[in-house]
Queue: 2 jobs
Job 1
Amino acid sequence: MKIMIRQLWTWFDTVPSQLILILLMLCLGLLLLGLAYGGDKFVIAQVHYSGGGDWYGDRTTIPNWLKLLRRRTDVVTADERAIVKLSDRELYRYPMLYIVGHGEIRFSEKEVEALRFYLQRGGFLFVNDDYGLDKSFRREMLRVFPDQNLQPIPNSHLIYHCFYDLPGLPKIHEHDGEPAQGFGLFHDGRMVVYYVYSSDIGDGLEDPEVHPNDTSEVRELAAKMAVNIAVYALTN
């Protein structure tokens, strides 16, 4: 042990002080990151937005989603969803955000800036159109990223193959009968926003009694897609 300690001190003598400072700051940053994320438990935060839409919907979606991750992957998760506003300091505690609703969504200027900052620095946003969110959501995303529109995500994209090998985005609820469509926004080549339209993955994850007409096969498709979304968010 004494030899190891002497060797360690000898090594420190040969390392520039600036590098030692960088290493210490890195260690501190990793420690704070671990504390901020609640240890090693993965949490999905549901966004409380303004505009009049039912941001609070899908009450059982995230708890069931987290349970799926615990059972099917090595991800250690919390039991319940977190609720966060984009203007909250706590926003940066969560690696993944969830937006859902049927109606109007509107961000303040502060929320637009906060969401852009969050996404550009490693955050991920999954948006589930419950039927009626599309128009206002697209408008608000143009405020967050004025230089790009939501892009169709091809079936070959990694999000459909990173854990389960899926042929593409599954169709869970009928809505207007349009095909399920996945869209994305990108920063530095990374998809930072994944938006599902005419699919409704969130409803497919709710407790069975919430949507009793959903078959077990449909619910399983929603479960597999949800696992892929979370795994993608955690690894990209």
Job 2
Amino acid sequence: MLGQRKGQTEQAGGVQLIQEQPGDWWEVEALYDLCFAPGREALSSYRLRDDVDPVAELCLVARDLDDILGGVIRYWPVRIGDAAVLLLGPIAVHPTRQGEGLGAVLMGASLEKAASLGWDRVLLVGDAPYYARFGFSKLAAVQMPPPTNPDRVLGLALSEGAWAGVTGQVTKA
């Protein structure tokens, strides 16, 4: 039952945000398969995730009151030089729940939690016009492994000046 899940973080808009648990893995992966093109795991961002544990406290699932999965978000530790960075992604919302603001709820809650845990900066590969509303902007001095479009490499500072002097190649943590 939903009430028995550990790690519940928030209830908003008829959904509860809960820390992803090992038993959620198959359902979460099925949602990613549904929402993203075949071959998603061939993307360069996945190479940064290979053999690296996600930041568990920030990996959230959104479930409705019937325990049906509506959305998910994951974060991974990476490095740029000496700087610790969170790599956001993937984030997905079930097609039947899109347009309800569930993605924004997942983003807001997880970014707030990341800041409270002491993370200073977040990186993602995505559509700049969409992610700008959350404060993300292009990182011209940061390079993702190829083949990544440099215009899609975006960052968000969770503390003032967090990206100052952070330049170079993104690598595994």
